[in-house]
Amino acid sequence: MGSKNHSSDEVDAVITWVDGSDPAHAAKRANTLKKSGKGSPNKLPTGHYSTRFLDNGELFYCVASLRKNAPWIRNIFIVTDNQVPDFINPQIQQQSGIRIVDHKEIFKSYEWALPTFNSLTIETAVWRIPDLSENFIYLNDDFILCSPVSKDDFFQDGNVILRGKWKTMTHYGPTRLKLNNLFSRFVKKFLGITRSLNLLTQIRSARLADFKEKYFYTPHVPHPIRKQTVKGYYQNHPKIFEENIKYSFRDTNQHTIQYLANHLEIKNGSAILKPNNNAVLINGEMDLKYSIHRKIKQISNEEVKFLCIQGFEAMDWEIQNRLQQLFEKMFPSIKKCKSTKV
């Protein structure tokens, strides 16, 4: 796919987003699930659950936070499946540098992989966005920048800034995977907790970069990625690319592009490793109420740069309302349209 030449100083943001409540999208998802079946031994049991596709309105605050706290970002690419977020119109697109990218654009020549409802599959192809800058930041739609950041928070002198810590690899054999899948079904049914096996995908990604015993664990933070790093890898390993995009729903055989990129950069000596001491994850399914209030206080006191919100729909009304008030205080100049849900 062709792209223009860009200054190495330019940085774009890439966000993947879906509104699973859209009847057309829900029908397409149900039809694809029916064709693929639920019985694959390697399919992540929670990968097709409707909560994975909910739009709780976090995207609005994600975009607002990028424009307020990272105004140096050139374009904000929102990757969607034939959808446009409710709050976006041509005027907002122009003012905020937002560009909507359909799955068909990034899967050009790989249309056989569509439709897909798998974030891991979609992420694998985001480097194919036309006109994407060499340095870009990948975010889920539930990421929010809580305070001003600079390019040096992500890229420095040709290096990427990675936040996390080293961990010993765990072996996931067939028996362990089967037990994990059974446990995932159990905790979802009885505790309402959606497990993603994120550690497994991080380990798989590290192994692709030839790491054998330890991997650099990265929490839920925005991910700085150099396009040429992943492009070069997949061009040299086209079968790995094709294998990873063939799954319509999450599968335990998959790796994750951002963690692969991280370990390739570490291997190449082009990564600066830092501890994760300025990020917070709020999980409505797992966090106790007092824990969420404590984290909100941290954000209010400007102790946090990066916030990730998961399971918003599982939070009680009081916490949802407190979060909304916090975001409106953080972004006072931005008026939210009535159609957004948060």
UniProtKB/TrEMBL annotation:
InterPro entries noted in UniProt: RPS_phosphotransferase_WefF, Stealth_CR1, Stealth_CR2
Pfam families on file: Stealth_CR1 (PF17101), Stealth_CR2 (PF11380)
Annotated ranges, domain Stealth protein CR1 conserved region: 11-36
Sequence ranges assigned to domain Stealth protein CR2 conserved region in this UniProt record: 52-158
Superkingdom, taxonomy of origin: Bacteria
GO MF assignments: transferase activity, transferring phosphorus-containing groups
Record protein name field: Capsular biosynthesis protein
Organism: Rhodohalobacter barkolensis
